[in-house]
């Protein structure tokens, strides 16, 4: 989703849910039977300008980009009604939109955010969802690394950690 001049505040969350509901195999209803009434959203703020490893979210060392692992984990969270993604980078937005169409609520922000929390706020603003969720989780885009058992890391032999290089 991208803000447009016709919709300066972006589409409403209800409108987006209705559009996504039309996509096959997508169920983004706010409360499913048997789930608690409290609504939670997981929002993944992202940028490509990493100082230590530029472009790391799109690096493909294990069959898919790093950002895909994070979003897949967020989508598996049983208590999240919605999973969002926000970036100001067109390349990253396009990669996420094409891979996760119908399951993630992505936006391309026009503003340069000062940090991840600011990006999450832009996402909530975009959908005018301040009163929609009881909880909004800020999940860092590089938080969930793919696991390779028994690899050596900087901290020593840590089973279940990935080799982050030296």
Task: Tell me briefly what this model is.
The chain has helices at residues 13-21, 66-76, 90-100, 116-126, and strands at residues 40-46, 82-87, 105-108, 135-138, 152-153, 156-157.
What labels would you give this structure?
166 residues; alpha/beta; Spore Coat Polysaccharide Biosynthesis Protein SpsA, Chain A; 25% helix; disordered N terminus; disordered C terminus
Order of helices and strands: HEHEHEHEEE
Rg is 17 Å
**CATH class descriptor of the domain at 13-23 and 39-143:** Alpha Beta
| SS-based class | alpha/beta
- Globally, the shape reads globular
Q: Count the E strands.
A: 6
In the sheet with the most strands, the strands line up as 3-2-1-4
- Cα(first) to Cα(last) distance is 38 Å
Structure annotation, total helices = 4
Largest beta-sheet details? 4 strands, parallel
Mean pLDDT comes to: 75
| CATH architecture heading of the domain at 13-23 and 39-143 | Alpha-Beta Complex
């Amino acid at each position: 989703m991208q803000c447009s001049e016709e919709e300066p505040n972006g589409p409403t969350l209800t409108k987006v849910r209705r559009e996504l509901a039309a996509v096959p195999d997508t169920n983004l209803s706010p409360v499913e039977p048997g789930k608690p009434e409290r609504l939670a959203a997981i929002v993944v703020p992202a940028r490509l300008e990493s100082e230590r490893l530029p472009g790391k979210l799109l690096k493909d060392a294990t069959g898919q980009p790093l950002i895909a692992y994070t979003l897949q984990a967020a989508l598996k969270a049983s208590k999240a009604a919605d999973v969002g993604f926000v970036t100001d980078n067109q390349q990253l937005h396009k990669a996420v939109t094409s891979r996760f169409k119908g399951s993630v609520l992505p936006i391309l922000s026009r503003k340069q955010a000062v940090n991840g929390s600011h990006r999450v706020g832009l996402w909530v603003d975009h959908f005018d969802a301040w009163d929609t969720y009881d909880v909004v989780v800020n999940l860092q885009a590089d938080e969930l690394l793919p696991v390779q058992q028994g690899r050596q890391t900087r901290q020593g032999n840590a089973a279940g950690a990935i080799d982050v290089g030296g």
